[in-house]
Design goal:
four-stranded antiparallel sheet, 6 strands, 334 residues, alpha+beta, single chain
Length: 334
């Protein structure tokens, strides 16, 4: 297969555009949201990144012994396995069990990561050369992860950690951040924390209806005593056009949703109208053994179901939260 040159890739083009914007002479402060597509399907990357990682050297896969065994773990997993295969143009009855091809895909993905890393390096160098590096808040993160054939899936819509564990690197300007530079923080954070963090850096405050919290304390080497000890995410898998999950799993439209609460010890997945899942993350990081139906873990299931309920009650519909209507009708003239 012929690859375009690295200088002509979409990643290089976006980096070039970002550098042009950031280094344009101006007296005004600037804000740039740079959204790089890669790593992302199609799984293709130019030289030298296409051969930077050998398929035999990439980590192995976290999954059951076969797609059939994985499908038995839960109806939603079985559905997503079928959907992922159809999306990739693969006959579900002929699931590819080509270890070499799967490893090559993962190696190519790592090459895409390295291309992004190189282009981010160019952007940092340009910021340094322009004199703006020490005055700029830099946030590097991602919107989602990728299964990369873990649990026999590609994509992101599964309940497994691979789709939701994303990088977060922040370089804050100012003397207050000097003592914390280079530190790794193990505390849980969510993407909803980014807006409050950016606003705090600008001297602003997050709106009352914002669910996130500023990460500024961590950037200054402090850990708030009341910081979150768990993370949450939700998936709405309704298909209002074709009704695939509804037909496949016998669900009503509004029953196609799930919520996850995950801490250092357990991961609990609550489905609106399907059986729950419970994984002992501490002992089973591969999420291979569902404990939800084990009588010995009935208390844990109840505890985490209550956590889920409390979280849902706190974060229910809040469109008008924190607003007050002070409008008064004008008095009639006499």
């Amino acid at each position: 297969m012929l690859f375009r040159s690295a200088e002509d890739s979409d990643t290089a083009f976006m980096a070039d555009s970002a550098i042009a914007v950031m280094t344009t002479p101006s007296r005004r402060p600037w804000f740039l949201h740079l959204s790089l597509l890669r790593p992302h399907p199609p799984f293709i990357v130019p030289e030298p990144y296409n051969s930077m990682y050998h398929p035999d050297a990439v980590p192995g896969f976290r999954r059951a012994a076969s797609p059939e065994a994985e499908s038995l773990s839960h109806p939603y997993t079985a559905y997503m396995l079928r959907e992922h295969l159809v999306r990739e143009g693969i006959d579900p009855a002929k699931h590819p069990n080509d270890e070499t091809a799967m490893r090559q895909l993962r190696a190519t993905y790592y090459g895409m990561i390295s291309e992004v890393d190189h282009q981010i390096g160019r952007i940092m160098a340009a910021l340094t050369a322009s004199g703006d590096y020490n005055n700029t808040l830099i946030v590097f993160t991602s919107d989602h992860g990728e299964q990369l054939w873990d649990h026999w899936m590609l994509g992101k819509e599964s309940i497994f950690d691979q789709g939701f564990h994303v990088p977060l690197i922040i370089r804050a300007p100012g003397a207050s951040a000097e003592g914390a530079r280079g530190h790794t923080v193990d505390a849980f954070t969510e993407n909803i924390d980014l807006m409050p963090t950016i606003l705090a850096s600008l001297g602003g405050e997050a709106p009352l209806q914002c669910d996130g919290r500023s990460l500024t304390p961590f950037l200054e080497g402090r850990t708030p005593a009341d910081w979150r000890r768990e993370v949450h995410w939700e998936i709405d898998f309704r298909d209002v056009v074709n009704g695939k999950p509804e037909t496949d799993m016998g669900l009503r439209l509004d029953e196609c949703s799930l919520g996850v609460v995950r801490d250092q010890r357990y991961k609990y997945v609550h489905f609106t109208a399907l059986p729950s899942l419970l994984y002992n993350i501490g002992d089973d990081p591969d999420e291979s053994v569902n404990l939800a139906d084990d009588p010995a873990y009935a208390g844990v299931v109840a505890e985490y179901a209550q956590k889920m309920l409390s979280w849902r009650m706190v974060h229910a519909e809040r469109t008008l939260t924190g607003f007050r209507n002070d409008f008064e009708r004008p008095r009639a003239q006499r």
